[in-house]
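User: Modeling request: complex.
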Amino acid sequence: MSATLSTPSSGQPAVARPLTARVARYRTAYLWLIPTFALLLVFNYYPALSALYHSLFQWNGANIKLFVGVNHFVDLWHDPLWWESFTHLIILTVALVAINLTFPLGAAAMIFHLWNLRAAYFYRVLLVVPMVVPGLVILMIWMFIYSPNIGLLNQSLALLGLENLQRFWLGDFKLALYAIIFVGFPWVAGIGTLIYLAGFQAIPSELMDSAVIDGASTWQRLAFVELPMVLSQIKLVVILTVITAFQNFTIVLVMTNGGPGTKTLVPGLHLYKAAMAYNRMGYACAIGTVLFFLTLVLTYLNHRYLRSSVEFTGS
Amino acid sequence: MSHNGLSRRRFLQLSGATGVALTLASCVPSTPADNMAGPAAEARVVSHYAQGLTPRERLETDRWDPPQALWALEEAYKDLHPDVDLEFVESVASGYDEWMVTQLTAGTAPEILWYQRGWIARDYEKNWFNNLDPYLSQPNPYVEGYDSWKDTFQGPVIASGTAPDGHIYLITGDIVGTGFFYNKSKFDELGLAVPETWAEYEEAQQAIADSGTTPFSVSYHLQGGTPLYGSWTTRVFQDVLYDHKMAQISGGTPVSRTWKPGEGLQPPAMVRAIRDGNYAATDPEWLEMLRLMKEWSVHYPEGFWALPAADVFRLWAEGEAAVAWLGSWMNKPVRNDPLIEFEWGIFPKMPTVTQETSQYGGLGFPAMAGVGGVFQYITTTVAEERGVLDDTIDWLQFLTAPPNLIEVLNDHGGFAPGVKDTAGADPTLAVYTDMLVNFGAERIEPFDSMLTREFVDAMWRNLQQFMAGELSADEMSSIMQQEMELAAQQLLNEHPDWAEA
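Assistant: Request completed. Predicted assembly structure:
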């Protein structure tokens, strides 16, 4: 086996075949892809298009459905709760991206550099096991940790004689959003760590050996060889984090319901309340549509500007 | 090389076929019957979301018996109607309103749903539930001596399920109350008597606070706290402080305080009052309400806006707080909870805000009580589509036959029966019904159901911020006035007939 570093444009020219011939050749595979795409169409694409359509209507999900054009989007522009929730979303997204670019990456790098393979396997399993715990259970545990009277955090602070640091974490108007961000600390037991680890493990040993022979230190190897080689994984984690941050509102729904006041309200919860509590389905669809396009733009920007200058191909 | 395993092609074919079969199976619509334990193939199924009456086994963590009477009645009913299966839908832990709206919108709701009477004005035109007038006008086959099913109920109780169109959509079978539960041992220790005026109550609370105990246990947490205690407090305060303006709000007609729900100021009247400027969040009475609430809050637990609602009872039961405002649904827990090691009692009435305390004071508080608690059920329109509406009605008729209703409510222990024949009802609930009958209920429609759901969410959100000191009274008043006008206009657009009395 040999490994080369090449620019993305230097691949071998493909042998051109007619499209129909290629489809015919792999017809069985295409056939079995149909159920997957049928499900995607029904459960992903249709609802998205339906939301786009219904965002143009005043619709309560039951007996009122009036065409209102882009009024919902205009209302959204003037909705102070939308802007407040969007500000919270930006803070959450930036924080989550920063977290996912550091803690899981660090954990993966440490595991990758363990000499003892048995120990590496052990730690990898240790990080995977918490992923099988239902997310809601994790949130309930954190609600207990934050509980003002009997919570682990305040009780621990009292035990350490730090009563002055005790807070009503999820009820504190200034701290609640940061308490939400802190959920999951130390943030290493997630899919991000596994993605990074897979990236590290795919780095060819020849490359690492060359760096060692050239006298690169551990930190230099990490900075100039390993991190550039896992840039596609970093990109993936950033995209997944942004999408998750934009879509996910479970954590605030369960832990704070957007409170205290509106200090942890996020657009997803605003959408959910508009649809399910206020029966403003059309307005909720408008929020969903805006979030969809924002996610699309951010994903595109991520693809466009976060790009490795080199791409490894193994042959 | 040869092997006995599957070829790649064969494997793909089998995988594909399995995938298609699973996809098709998942597309078959489910019904509540799918969740049942082995119903007979020909049996008609009536599923019932019974809220607090949903029977369940006692758990190790339970400190008192959970409700189970519906199981006994189910058996009795099954003996009479072997061709009908009853299914009790498991309680929804939180977000019930959202769950209910989703089920009703999707057409997957149980045949019988628990429902708040305050939501009727919001939903009655959505064709989600049935007009019950035709059934209520007929006799209940399980009750003798009455001309109609409706006649078996106390008038104000069954009338509480009336929508603005004049039809009854809700079977209401109980009466609910609240009271100030106080730690009698603590009061005795401090030499305090049950206060009669707000000023006396203030003094008592100060004495309790000075002794190192929290005077009043309450939560203004957005989940379960503010929507309960914020609602109760504003309801009773408004009634007193706006007493001199009731006729103005109603458009000229005096509004007497009774315990009959339909005789207060209903949403259409409130919408008109807001439109005409007769009721506003910028009123001095409204600001006075905020002032009194804020002053009272100095006696609340530290960080009450962040206190989980479930802690309100715990703080009182463990003696950390001297008084707690509890509902009659806590009647059974209070009597059976081993955590409570002190003598306790219930204030016979809330201490009166006199003119010494407020220029708008003088009138005693109404009872924070009313019609409809755990027994408020709609029959969903999907019951007719499934061909079981008659069975659904029949089960409700069986259930509301006085002996059956009383058996169920006594078993729960927290709600008084709303039928005329109350023989055998739990006598410990009389304290709540007496307050309701003696002092009447609030006259201004509660914020919960006064306008839109969006409005009430804004109300609780801003009230929480106000109580926590994040908003001033003027800011709160100004924000809520805007919300009020918006919501009133929205309702007028949706119900043009509300524009005129």
